[in-house]
Amino acid sequence: MTYSKDNPFTAPLKFRRRLNGQASDKNVQHLVFDVSNSGISYKCGDSIAVFPKNNENETAEILRLLKISPETQVNLPFLDEKISIFAALREYLCITNLPDQFWKWLGEIETNFDMGSFINNKILSSDPECQVLAKSYSLLEILKKIDGHCKVEPSELVSKLRRLMPRLYSIASSPLANRNEIHIVVGVVSHINAIGNKRNGIASNYLAHGANIGEGIRVFVVKSMFALPTNAESNIIMVGPGTGIAPFRGFLQERQCMVDKGDKIGKSWLFFGDRNRATDFLFEEELQAFKGSGILTNLDLAFSRDQENKIYVQDRIWEHRKELWLWISKGAYIYICGNASKMAVDVENTLKKIAMELSNFTEDEANGFLKSLKDNRRYQKDVY
Ligand SMILES: Cc1cc2nc3c(=O)[nH]c(=O)nc-3n(C[C@H](O)[C@H](O)[C@H](O)COP(=O)(O)OP(=O)(O)OC[C@H]3O[C@@H](n4cnc5c(N)ncnc54)[C@H](O)[C@@H]3O)c2cc1C
Protein backbone atom coordinates (compact mmCIF):
# COMPACT_ATOMS: atom_id res chain seq x y z
CA MET A 1 0.00 0.00 0.00
CA THR A 2 1.40 3.42 -0.92
CA TYR A 3 0.66 6.28 1.42
CA SER A 4 1.47 9.88 0.62
CA LYS A 5 0.93 13.49 1.65
CA ASP A 6 -2.60 13.36 0.29
CA ASN A 7 -3.27 9.84 1.51
CA PRO A 8 -1.40 9.35 4.82
CA PHE A 9 -1.83 6.39 7.18
CA THR A 10 -3.13 7.19 10.66
CA ALA A 11 -0.68 5.33 12.90
CA PRO A 12 -1.37 4.99 16.63
CA LEU A 13 1.48 6.29 18.79
CA LYS A 14 2.51 3.13 20.65
CA PHE A 15 5.39 4.16 22.87
CA ARG A 16 7.39 7.21 23.94
CA ARG A 17 10.27 7.76 26.31
CA ARG A 18 12.81 10.45 26.93
CA LEU A 19 16.30 9.27 26.09
CA ASN A 20 18.22 11.86 28.12
CA GLY A 21 18.74 11.73 31.85
CA GLN A 22 16.71 14.11 34.05
CA ALA A 23 19.62 16.50 34.51
CA SER A 24 20.17 17.04 30.78
CA ASP A 25 19.24 20.35 29.17
CA LYS A 26 18.39 18.42 26.01
CA ASN A 27 15.16 16.56 25.35
CA VAL A 28 15.43 13.75 22.83
CA GLN A 29 12.52 11.35 22.62
CA HIS A 30 12.25 7.81 21.28
CA LEU A 31 8.82 7.22 19.73
CA VAL A 32 7.22 4.16 18.19
CA PHE A 33 4.35 4.15 15.67
CA ASP A 34 2.18 1.08 15.29
CA VAL A 35 1.92 0.35 11.57
CA SER A 36 0.39 -3.13 11.83
CA ASN A 37 -2.35 -3.78 9.23
CA SER A 38 -1.22 -0.74 7.23
CA GLY A 39 0.67 -2.55 4.51
CA ILE A 40 3.45 0.02 5.00
CA SER A 41 6.86 -1.22 3.98
CA TYR A 42 10.13 0.50 4.64
CA LYS A 43 13.85 -0.16 4.66
CA CYS A 44 16.57 1.03 7.02
CA GLY A 45 17.63 4.54 6.01
CA ASP A 46 14.14 5.67 4.89
CA SER A 47 12.39 8.56 6.63
CA ILE A 48 8.87 8.92 7.89
CA ALA A 49 6.87 12.08 7.25
CA VAL A 50 4.73 13.06 10.22
CA PHE A 51 1.85 15.53 10.10
CA PRO A 52 2.06 17.46 13.38
CA LYS A 53 -0.75 19.19 15.23
CA ASN A 54 -0.56 22.72 16.58
CA ASN A 55 -0.76 23.26 20.31
CA GLU A 56 -4.31 22.58 21.53
CA ASN A 57 -4.47 25.46 24.04
CA GLU A 58 -3.04 27.98 21.56
CA THR A 59 -5.61 26.93 18.97
CA ALA A 60 -8.44 27.35 21.47
CA GLU A 61 -7.06 30.75 22.53
CA ILE A 62 -6.97 31.99 18.91
CA LEU A 63 -10.66 31.15 18.46
CA ARG A 64 -11.55 32.67 21.83
CA LEU A 65 -9.82 35.95 20.90
CA LEU A 66 -11.59 35.99 17.54
CA LYS A 67 -14.91 35.08 19.17
CA ILE A 68 -15.39 32.25 16.69
CA SER A 69 -17.09 29.05 17.83
CA PRO A 70 -14.66 26.12 17.55
CA GLU A 71 -17.44 24.08 15.93
CA THR A 72 -17.87 26.48 12.97
CA GLN A 73 -17.56 24.41 9.80
CA VAL A 74 -15.08 25.42 7.10
CA ASN A 75 -13.83 24.10 3.77
CA LEU A 76 -10.15 23.55 3.04
CA PRO A 77 -9.10 23.27 -0.61
CA PHE A 78 -7.21 20.01 -0.04
CA LEU A 79 -9.98 18.19 1.91
CA ASP A 80 -13.17 16.71 0.48
CA GLU A 81 -15.34 17.34 3.54
CA LYS A 82 -16.05 20.34 5.72
CA ILE A 83 -14.35 20.26 9.12
CA SER A 84 -14.58 22.38 12.26
CA ILE A 85 -12.42 25.50 12.33
CA PHE A 86 -10.79 24.09 15.48
CA ALA A 87 -9.65 20.98 13.57
CA ALA A 88 -8.59 23.15 10.62
CA LEU A 89 -6.37 25.37 12.77
CA ARG A 90 -5.05 22.56 14.96
CA GLU A 91 -4.30 19.94 12.32
CA TYR A 92 -4.20 21.39 8.84
CA LEU A 93 -3.02 25.00 8.82
CA CYS A 94 0.22 26.70 9.76
CA ILE A 95 -0.43 29.26 12.50
CA THR A 96 3.19 30.18 13.17
CA ASN A 97 4.64 31.28 9.81
CA LEU A 98 2.10 33.66 8.32
CA PRO A 99 2.27 34.44 4.59
CA ASP A 100 2.22 37.93 3.03
CA GLN A 101 -1.32 37.38 1.78
CA PHE A 102 -2.40 36.96 5.42
CA TRP A 103 -0.67 40.21 6.45
CA LYS A 104 -2.13 42.19 3.53
CA TRP A 105 -5.57 40.91 4.40
CA LEU A 106 -5.16 41.63 8.12
CA GLY A 107 -3.95 45.15 7.30
CA GLU A 108 -7.25 45.80 5.56
CA ILE A 109 -9.36 44.70 8.52
CA GLU A 110 -10.44 47.41 10.86
CA THR A 111 -9.13 47.15 14.39
CA ASN A 112 -8.68 49.48 17.35
CA PHE A 113 -4.97 49.29 16.78
CA ASP A 114 -3.18 50.98 13.92
CA MET A 115 -2.60 47.69 12.17
CA GLY A 116 -2.44 49.25 8.75
CA SER A 117 0.69 51.22 9.53
CA PHE A 118 2.22 48.36 11.54
CA ILE A 119 1.78 46.01 8.64
CA ASN A 120 2.81 48.44 5.91
CA ASN A 121 5.77 49.88 7.79
CA LYS A 122 7.04 46.71 9.38
CA ILE A 123 5.67 43.47 8.00
CA LEU A 124 5.54 44.49 4.35
CA SER A 125 8.55 46.79 4.61
CA SER A 126 11.53 46.01 2.39
CA ASP A 127 13.87 46.52 5.36
CA PRO A 128 14.99 42.97 6.21
CA GLU A 129 15.37 43.77 9.93
CA CYS A 130 11.79 45.02 10.17
CA GLN A 131 10.59 41.95 8.35
CA VAL A 132 12.39 39.54 10.66
CA LEU A 133 10.82 41.20 13.67
CA ALA A 134 7.35 41.54 12.27
CA LYS A 135 7.18 38.18 10.56
CA SER A 136 8.07 36.48 13.83
CA TYR A 137 4.51 37.01 15.00
CA SER A 138 2.46 33.86 15.15
CA LEU A 139 -1.29 34.08 14.69
CA LEU A 140 -1.81 34.01 18.45
CA GLU A 141 0.90 36.62 19.09
CA ILE A 142 -0.54 39.08 16.56
CA LEU A 143 -4.08 38.56 17.88
CA LYS A 144 -2.86 39.28 21.40
CA LYS A 145 -1.10 42.40 20.10
CA ILE A 146 -4.32 43.71 18.60
CA ASP A 147 -6.25 42.30 21.54
CA GLY A 148 -8.48 40.29 19.21
CA HIS A 149 -9.98 43.49 17.82
CA CYS A 150 -10.67 42.37 14.32
CA LYS A 151 -13.74 40.87 12.81
CA VAL A 152 -12.88 37.97 10.57
CA GLU A 153 -14.95 35.58 8.56
CA PRO A 154 -13.88 32.03 9.50
CA SER A 155 -13.80 30.91 5.86
CA GLU A 156 -11.67 33.92 4.90
CA LEU A 157 -9.24 33.37 7.78
CA VAL A 158 -8.55 29.76 6.79
CA SER A 159 -8.11 30.75 3.14
CA LYS A 160 -5.25 33.11 4.10
CA LEU A 161 -3.15 30.53 5.95
CA ARG A 162 -0.65 28.03 4.56
CA ARG A 163 -1.11 24.29 4.80
CA LEU A 164 0.66 22.69 7.79
CA MET A 165 3.42 20.57 6.26
CA PRO A 166 4.67 17.21 7.46
CA ARG A 167 8.11 16.93 9.10
CA LEU A 168 10.58 14.21 8.20
CA TYR A 169 12.23 11.90 10.75
CA SER A 170 14.91 9.30 9.97
CA ILE A 171 13.57 5.85 10.75
CA ALA A 172 15.39 4.37 13.75
CA SER A 173 14.37 0.74 13.36
CA SER A 174 14.83 -2.19 11.00
CA PRO A 175 11.73 -3.79 9.47
CA LEU A 176 13.39 -7.19 10.06
CA ALA A 177 13.40 -6.54 13.81
CA ASN A 178 10.12 -4.57 14.02
CA ARG A 179 7.77 -5.55 11.21
CA ASN A 180 4.77 -3.70 12.62
CA GLU A 181 6.54 -0.69 14.07
CA ILE A 182 8.39 2.40 12.95
CA HIS A 183 10.73 3.96 15.50
CA ILE A 184 11.98 7.55 15.42
CA VAL A 185 14.26 9.75 17.52
CA VAL A 186 13.08 13.34 17.95
CA GLY A 187 15.08 16.25 19.34
CA VAL A 188 12.70 18.77 20.89
CA VAL A 189 13.41 22.24 19.52
CA SER A 190 12.52 25.71 20.73
CA HIS A 191 14.05 29.16 20.35
CA ILE A 192 13.43 32.73 21.44
CA ASN A 193 11.93 34.56 18.47
CA ALA A 194 12.67 38.14 17.42
CA ILE A 195 9.82 39.45 19.60
CA GLY A 196 11.43 37.82 22.63
CA ASN A 197 8.89 35.02 23.07
CA LYS A 198 9.69 31.33 23.37
CA ARG A 199 8.71 29.56 20.16
CA ASN A 200 8.34 25.81 20.37
CA GLY A 201 8.92 23.72 17.26
CA ILE A 202 5.50 22.45 16.18
CA ALA A 203 6.18 18.81 15.37
CA SER A 204 8.88 18.05 17.91
CA ASN A 205 6.83 19.47 20.78
CA TYR A 206 3.65 17.80 19.56
CA LEU A 207 5.44 14.44 19.41
CA ALA A 208 7.18 14.94 22.75
CA HIS A 209 4.27 16.27 24.83
CA GLY A 210 1.17 17.01 22.77
CA ALA A 211 0.26 13.59 21.41
CA ASN A 212 -1.21 10.97 23.73
CA ILE A 213 -0.21 7.33 23.63
CA GLY A 214 -2.75 5.58 21.39
CA GLU A 215 -3.50 8.77 19.46
CA GLY A 216 -3.61 8.39 15.67
CA ILE A 217 -0.95 10.41 13.85
CA ARG A 218 -0.96 10.86 10.06
CA VAL A 219 2.26 9.53 8.55
CA PHE A 220 3.77 8.18 5.34
CA VAL A 221 7.15 6.67 4.50
CA VAL A 222 9.58 8.63 2.31
CA LYS A 223 11.98 6.36 0.46
CA SER A 224 15.64 7.32 0.61
CA MET A 225 18.85 6.46 -1.20
CA PHE A 226 20.50 6.36 2.26
CA ALA A 227 20.87 2.60 2.66
CA LEU A 228 23.06 -0.24 3.86
CA PRO A 229 25.41 -1.68 1.20
CA THR A 230 23.73 -4.39 -0.88
CA ASN A 231 26.63 -6.68 0.02
CA ALA A 232 26.13 -7.33 3.75
CA GLU A 233 29.80 -8.26 4.10
CA SER A 234 30.89 -4.69 3.30
CA ASN A 235 32.33 -2.72 6.19
CA ILE A 236 30.45 0.40 7.29
CA ILE A 237 31.52 3.54 9.14
CA MET A 238 28.64 5.49 10.72
CA VAL A 239 28.93 9.03 12.05
CA GLY A 240 25.77 9.93 13.95
CA PRO A 241 25.92 12.28 16.93
CA GLY A 242 22.72 13.34 18.73
CA THR A 243 19.55 12.46 16.82
CA GLY A 244 21.87 11.40 13.99
CA ILE A 245 22.02 8.02 15.73
CA ALA A 246 18.53 7.21 14.38
CA PRO A 247 19.22 5.39 11.09
CA PHE A 248 22.27 3.62 12.56
CA ARG A 249 20.14 2.00 15.26
CA GLY A 250 18.15 0.61 12.31
CA PHE A 251 21.32 -0.50 10.49
CA LEU A 252 22.61 -2.31 13.59
CA GLN A 253 19.24 -4.00 14.26
CA GLU A 254 19.19 -5.14 10.64
CA ARG A 255 22.69 -6.61 10.85
CA GLN A 256 21.78 -8.33 14.15
CA CYS A 257 18.81 -9.99 12.41
CA MET A 258 21.07 -11.09 9.55
CA VAL A 259 23.52 -12.69 11.97
CA ASP A 260 20.63 -14.39 13.82
CA LYS A 261 19.60 -15.93 10.46
CA GLY A 262 23.13 -17.20 9.93
CA ASP A 263 24.22 -14.58 7.34
CA LYS A 264 27.72 -13.16 7.31
CA ILE A 265 28.10 -9.42 7.87
CA GLY A 266 30.94 -6.93 7.53
CA LYS A 267 32.50 -4.88 10.31
CA SER A 268 30.80 -1.73 11.58
CA TRP A 269 32.20 1.34 13.28
CA LEU A 270 30.06 3.98 14.99
CA PHE A 271 31.09 7.49 16.00
CA PHE A 272 28.51 8.85 18.41
CA GLY A 273 28.61 12.03 20.41
CA ASP A 274 26.55 14.53 22.38
CA ARG A 275 27.01 16.89 25.32
CA ASN A 276 27.46 14.74 28.46
CA ARG A 277 27.99 11.02 28.76
CA ALA A 278 26.02 10.70 32.00
CA THR A 279 22.81 12.13 30.52
CA ASP A 280 23.07 12.20 26.73
CA PHE A 281 24.44 8.79 25.74
CA LEU A 282 21.35 7.91 23.69
CA PHE A 283 20.58 4.16 23.48
CA GLU A 284 23.66 3.45 25.62
CA GLU A 285 22.54 -0.05 26.67
CA GLU A 286 21.61 -1.09 23.15
CA LEU A 287 24.85 0.22 21.67
CA GLN A 288 26.95 -1.48 24.34
CA ALA A 289 25.03 -4.72 23.66
CA PHE A 290 25.74 -4.43 19.90
CA LYS A 291 29.38 -3.88 20.78
CA GLY A 292 29.36 -6.85 23.17
CA SER A 293 27.85 -9.18 20.57
CA GLY A 294 30.29 -8.03 17.88
CA ILE A 295 27.61 -6.50 15.59
CA LEU A 296 29.36 -3.21 16.28
CA THR A 297 33.10 -3.66 15.87
CA ASN A 298 34.22 -0.19 17.00
CA LEU A 299 32.35 2.36 19.09
CA ASP A 300 33.99 5.75 19.51
CA LEU A 301 32.39 8.42 21.65
CA ALA A 302 32.76 12.19 21.84
CA PHE A 303 31.01 13.98 24.70
CA SER A 304 31.74 17.63 24.12
CA ARG A 305 31.07 18.98 27.61
CA ASP A 306 32.66 16.31 29.77
CA GLN A 307 36.03 18.11 29.72
CA GLU A 308 37.28 21.63 29.34
CA ASN A 309 38.22 21.28 25.67
CA LYS A 310 35.21 20.38 23.58
CA ILE A 311 35.60 17.06 21.78
CA TYR A 312 33.38 16.29 18.79
CA VAL A 313 32.95 13.27 16.52
CA GLN A 314 35.31 14.81 13.93
CA ASP A 315 38.05 14.92 16.60
CA ARG A 316 37.58 11.19 17.26
CA ILE A 317 37.67 10.53 13.50
CA TRP A 318 40.93 12.46 13.27
CA GLU A 319 42.42 10.54 16.24
CA HIS A 320 41.60 7.24 14.53
CA ARG A 321 42.46 8.43 11.03
CA LYS A 322 45.01 5.72 10.20
CA GLU A 323 42.64 2.82 10.94
CA LEU A 324 39.71 4.67 9.40
CA TRP A 325 41.62 5.36 6.19
CA LEU A 326 42.57 1.69 6.00
CA TRP A 327 38.87 0.76 6.24
CA ILE A 328 37.97 3.26 3.51
CA SER A 329 40.89 2.13 1.30
CA LYS A 330 39.60 -1.42 1.60
CA GLY A 331 36.10 -0.48 0.45
CA ALA A 332 34.22 0.58 3.60
CA TYR A 333 31.06 2.67 3.20
CA ILE A 334 30.86 5.90 5.17
CA TYR A 335 27.59 7.38 6.41
CA ILE A 336 26.86 10.71 8.13
CA CYS A 337 23.56 11.57 9.80
CA GLY A 338 22.47 14.61 11.83
CA ASN A 339 23.22 18.32 11.81
CA ALA A 340 23.81 19.60 8.27
CA SER A 341 25.13 23.09 8.90
CA LYS A 342 27.93 22.33 11.34
CA MET A 343 28.59 18.66 12.11
CA ALA A 344 28.38 17.25 8.57
CA VAL A 345 30.60 20.06 7.24
CA ASP A 346 33.21 19.54 9.97
CA VAL A 347 33.22 15.77 9.42
CA GLU A 348 33.60 16.18 5.65
CA ASN A 349 36.47 18.65 6.13
CA THR A 350 38.14 16.17 8.47
CA LEU A 351 37.80 13.41 5.88
CA LYS A 352 39.41 15.72 3.31
CA LYS A 353 42.25 16.53 5.72
CA ILE A 354 42.83 12.82 6.31
CA ALA A 355 42.87 12.13 2.55
CA MET A 356 45.44 14.91 2.10
CA GLU A 357 47.64 13.67 4.94
CA LEU A 358 47.47 9.93 4.41
CA SER A 359 47.16 9.72 0.62
CA ASN A 360 49.19 12.84 -0.12
CA PHE A 361 46.26 14.25 -2.07
CA THR A 362 46.01 17.91 -3.01
CA GLU A 363 42.79 19.58 -1.86
CA ASP A 364 41.32 19.11 -5.35
CA GLU A 365 42.28 15.45 -5.35
CA ALA A 366 40.75 14.97 -1.90
CA ASN A 367 37.52 16.60 -3.15
CA GLY A 368 37.61 14.37 -6.21
CA PHE A 369 38.15 11.29 -4.06
CA LEU A 370 35.12 12.08 -1.85
CA LYS A 371 33.08 12.78 -4.98
CA SER A 372 34.02 9.39 -6.42
CA LEU A 373 32.96 7.75 -3.13
CA LYS A 374 29.63 9.63 -3.35
CA ASP A 375 29.14 8.62 -6.99
CA ASN A 376 29.69 4.97 -6.00
CA ARG A 377 27.24 5.34 -3.08
CA ARG A 378 30.06 4.66 -0.65
CA TYR A 379 29.68 8.07 0.99
CA GLN A 380 26.09 8.89 1.97
CA LYS A 381 24.54 11.63 4.05
CA ASP A 382 21.17 12.01 5.79
CA VAL A 383 21.56 15.51 7.15
CA TYR A 384 19.11 18.25 8.11
C1 LIG B 1 15.60 14.06 5.83
C2 LIG B 1 15.36 14.63 7.23
C3 LIG B 1 15.49 13.80 8.32
C4 LIG B 1 15.29 14.31 9.60
N1 LIG B 1 15.44 13.46 10.66
C5 LIG B 1 15.28 13.94 11.91
C6 LIG B 1 15.44 13.07 13.04
O1 LIG B 1 15.71 11.87 12.91
N2 LIG B 1 15.26 13.61 14.28
C7 LIG B 1 14.95 14.94 14.45
O2 LIG B 1 14.80 15.37 15.61
N3 LIG B 1 14.78 15.77 13.39
C8 LIG B 1 14.92 15.30 12.14
N4 LIG B 1 14.73 16.15 11.08
C9 LIG B 1 14.28 17.53 11.34
C10 LIG B 1 12.74 17.54 11.48
O3 LIG B 1 12.15 17.25 10.23
C11 LIG B 1 12.16 18.88 11.95
O4 LIG B 1 12.68 19.89 11.13
C12 LIG B 1 12.47 19.22 13.40
O5 LIG B 1 11.91 18.24 14.26
C13 LIG B 1 11.87 20.59 13.77
O6 LIG B 1 10.51 20.59 13.48
P1 LIG B 1 9.45 21.36 14.39
O7 LIG B 1 8.14 21.27 13.70
O8 LIG B 1 9.54 20.92 15.80
O9 LIG B 1 9.97 22.84 14.35
P2 LIG B 1 9.31 24.05 13.45
O10 LIG B 1 8.02 24.43 14.00
O11 LIG B 1 9.38 23.65 12.00
O12 LIG B 1 10.35 25.14 13.80
C14 LIG B 1 11.69 24.99 13.37
C15 LIG B 1 11.97 26.28 12.65
O13 LIG B 1 12.08 27.28 13.66
C16 LIG B 1 13.02 28.21 13.26
N5 LIG B 1 14.08 28.24 14.26
C17 LIG B 1 14.55 27.23 15.00
N6 LIG B 1 15.50 27.65 15.83
C18 LIG B 1 15.64 28.97 15.60
C19 LIG B 1 16.44 29.98 16.12
N7 LIG B 1 17.35 29.72 17.09
N8 LIG B 1 16.30 31.22 15.65
C20 LIG B 1 15.40 31.51 14.69
N9 LIG B 1 14.61 30.60 14.15
C21 LIG B 1 14.73 29.35 14.59
C22 LIG B 1 13.59 27.76 11.95
O14 LIG B 1 12.92 28.44 10.90
C23 LIG B 1 13.28 26.30 11.92
O15 LIG B 1 13.11 25.84 10.60
C24 LIG B 1 14.94 15.66 9.79
C25 LIG B 1 14.78 16.48 8.67
C26 LIG B 1 15.00 15.98 7.42
C27 LIG B 1 14.83 16.91 6.25
- N- to C-terminal separation? 28 Å
Radius of gyration: 24 Å
Number of domains: 3
Query: In CATH terms, what is the fold-level topology of the largest domain?
Result: Rossmann fold
Structural class: alpha/beta
Which architecture of the largest domain would the CATH scheme give at its second level? 3-Layer(aba) Sandwich
Main beta sheet: 6 strands, antiparallel
Write the CATH homologous superfamily of the largest domain. Nucleotide-binding domain of ferredoxin-NADP reductase (FNR) module
Number of E-state strands: 15
Give an account of the 3D structure.
By secondary structure, the protein is of the alpha/beta class. The chain folds into three domains: 9-51 and 168-222, Elongation Factor Tu (Ef-tu), domain 3, CATH 2.40.30; 56-159, NADPH-cytochrome p450 Reductase, Chain A, domain 3, CATH 1.20.990; 236-383, Nucleotide-binding domain of ferredoxin-NADP reductase (FNR) module (Rossmann fold, 3-Layer(aba) Sandwich). Helices cover 36% and strands 20% of the residues. It has helices at residues 56-66, 85-92, 100-108, 115-123, 128-134, 139-145, 154-159, 202-210, 246-260, 277-280, 284-293, 313-319, 321-329, 343-358, 363-375; strands at 9-18, 28-34, 47-50, 73-74, 83-84, 167-170, 181-187, 190-192, 198-200, 216-222, 236-239, 268-274, 298-303, 333-338, 379-383. A six-stranded antiparallel beta sheet has the order 6-3-10-1-2-7, with helices on one face. A five-stranded parallel beta sheet has the order 13-12-11-14-15, sandwiched between helices. Strands 4-5 form a two-stranded antiparallel ribbon. A hairpin with a 5-residue loop joins β8 and β9. α1 runs parallel beside α6 and α12 packs parallel to α14. It starts with 8 loop residues before the first strand and ends with a strand. The mean pLDDT is 95. The structure holds flavin-adenine dinucleotide. Flavin-adenine dinucleotide (FAD) is lined by residues 47, 52, 167-170, 185-187, 189, 191, 201-204, 243, 246, 382, 384.
